[in-house]
Amino acid sequence: MSWNPLFDEFVNRMRSHAIPLRLQLWNGNHFDLSADPRVTITANSIGSLRHIIHPTLDNLGKAYVEGDIDVSGHVMDVVAVAARLAEANNSTERPTTRIADHTKELDKDSISYHYDVSNEFYAQWLDQEMVYSCAYFKTADDTLDAAQVQKLDHILAKLNLRPGQTLLDIGCGWGALIIRAARKYGVKALGVTLSQNQYDYAKARIEREGLSDVCEVRIQDYRDVSGQFDRITSVGMFEHVGLKNLQTYFKQVNKLLADGGVAMNHGITSTDPDSRSTPFGGGDFIDRYVFPNGELPHISLALREMASAGLEVLDVENLRRHYALTLEHWADRFDAAKERVLALAGEQRYRIWRIYLAGCAYGFRQDWIALHQILATKSGGPEMNKLPLTRDYMYRHP
Predict the structure, then answer these.
(1) pTM of the model
(2) Residues classed as catalytic
(3) What is the torsion angle, in degrees rounded to the nearest 10, for the CA atoms of residue 204, residue 208, residue 213 and residue 219?
């Protein structure tokens, strides 16, 4: 069968959904799916139509990354239109739960693939502290720089830090949290990462700011860390642990946490009760191009595995809306830095990250994914939980 009847049927079906999209063909013909299209998808060849007439987020994203299609319009509108196409296509396929064997070698390779693009690449669109995780907005008008510092303080305040305590940050990124903890709260902080670029940046910053006596960064797998720490943080890291390894991960947190200590796990969670991937193929695109082998647990699974590992959950906060705002800032800054990003990373990686950042912002807005901060201590009576009786202390920042 030729492509014409299939494409015509697709266009007629999609027009009934009034999606604000123009489909532009390689031969100059175009088809509007509504009276006021805000987005144009250009099919660069006949072969490109196979992605368009089977519109999952993975198919459309792959076609864009590989250059089979081009898109124009604000990137948030592009993602919203792609999601509407996928939904209108009546896909009833249930997302799957991806489970990988998270060896130390696999995790290091996955982290290196994602984070070791270049520090300058990330600096184009992150805040001045280089914080690559959900910010904390007191108002929607907060700048990204302000919201990221507020996030650091929000986490550190929840831990009820005291001068002289020891802090371990598992997956420390470019070091912003351990540096702030040492400077503002007077603790001795260790950060571990699997990214060479992050390690080099954090180490240089610690030395430059004269904090080497109270701050240290290492390239080290969380499974290889030893010692005892008064406080433990993990921010945007447990997404890389794997569903099968969650209890191992939380048992290691328990082992490293001193009696009476407090741990904070800040990470992306699935909103699917069975911890399945995001709908319409979005998770497949991320696994293919962005976060290989990432796995998101539902909050209920995370809490269950924490309890099984001997941790008592003290406080849970959902920052889903904050992450949507964060990603919208990143997407706008990424687009504003287009020429520099292209020079640093090339056309394909530019396309991957452009659609990824905007797509994640959309996913958080739609409640496809969430972000939970979970505060915990060791299970076992009053000597293990020495925090104040109310949450009031969390909002009295020093």
Answers:
(1) 0.93
(2) 360
(3) -10
